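Hi R.,

Here's the chain you asked about this morning:
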Amino acid sequence: MTTAEKIYKAVKELPEPMLHEVLDFAEFLKQKNKTKSSLAKTASDMDSYFANPKVIEAIERGRKEIKEGRVTIITDPNNIWESIL
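And the predicted structure, written out as tokens:
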């Protein structure tokens, strides 16, 4: 007997209010699994992004420019482009 069959057998005789609880719990488990999968994919995508040599080069260039004092002071965060240009 499969797990799904065992679950069906266990719940088929439950009263309706309890069936709602079982359904709520099953939907919670499905959502929980989707969230975990989504977080794992996001972490994997981020790892791939930062493993890209071009990204690493850009970060290192930025660090070097900061050390050399080549930075732009943003005076108005609501209008960034005026501060930069």
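The two ends are 70 Å apart (CA to CA).

Let me know if you need anything else.
M.
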